[in-house]
Backbone:
């Protein structure tokens, strides 16, 4: 499974670098966007559970969602994307690899296995029992797994993302004074 994790991580890093060259946005920006999307999906999931629950469970779900929003504001949304990107750029410029590549490998493998296992099992259970709550569980797992992979990638250094006029091979021919192009 570690071999599969490495293959997926290298493929995602290559795709992130192409995306960065194309748009100028890093894998960190993508991870934050996926995190925002997973928060929306999570609250939709909680809303579905909230709508079909009795009064006691509604109170518990409501208090949990409020506590979760408070925790997100205190942790995840505290630093800006630019601060994370600058930290990653400094690390890449000094020649260091992302420590999350190794440190979070078992976490990524666990989420990957859970996503694959629950993907097959969850769809089968949904078809048999028609539990609506399962419709949002698999996307949450996929989004969380995607965020873990994106955060383990290294962005290109800022100078490696060139503006089209600065790319080698596309040099402009100098024009002499008085000539028209």
Residues:
């Amino acid at each position: 499974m570690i071999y599969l994790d490495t293959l997926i991580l290298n493929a995602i890093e290559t795709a992130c670098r192409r995306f960065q060259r194309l748009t100028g946005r890093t894998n960190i920006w993508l991870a934050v966007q996926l995190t925002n999307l997973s928060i929306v999906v999570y609250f939709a999931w909680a809303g579905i559970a909230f709508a079909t629950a009795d009064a006691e469970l509604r109170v518990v779900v409501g208090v949990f969602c409020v506590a979760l929003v408070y925790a997100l504001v205190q942790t995840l949304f505290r630093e800006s994307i630019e601060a994370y990107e600058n930290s990653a750029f400094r690390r890449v410029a000094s020649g260091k690899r992302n420590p999350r590549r190794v440190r979070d490998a078992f976490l990524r493998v666990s989420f990957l296995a859970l996503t694959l296992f629950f993907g097959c099992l969850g769809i089968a259970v949904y078809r048999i029992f028609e539990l609506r709550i399962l419709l949002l569980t698999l996307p949450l797992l996929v989004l969380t797994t995607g965020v873990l992979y994106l955060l383990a990638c290294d962005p290109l250094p800022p100078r490696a993302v060139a503006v089209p006029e600065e790319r080698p091979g596309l040099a402009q021919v100098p024009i002499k004074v008085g000539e028209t192009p």
Summary: The two ends are 58 Å apart (CA to CA). Confidence is low (pLDDT under 50) at residues 170-175. The helical segments are 2-23, 27-51, 55-74, 81-93, 100-103, 105-129, 134-152.
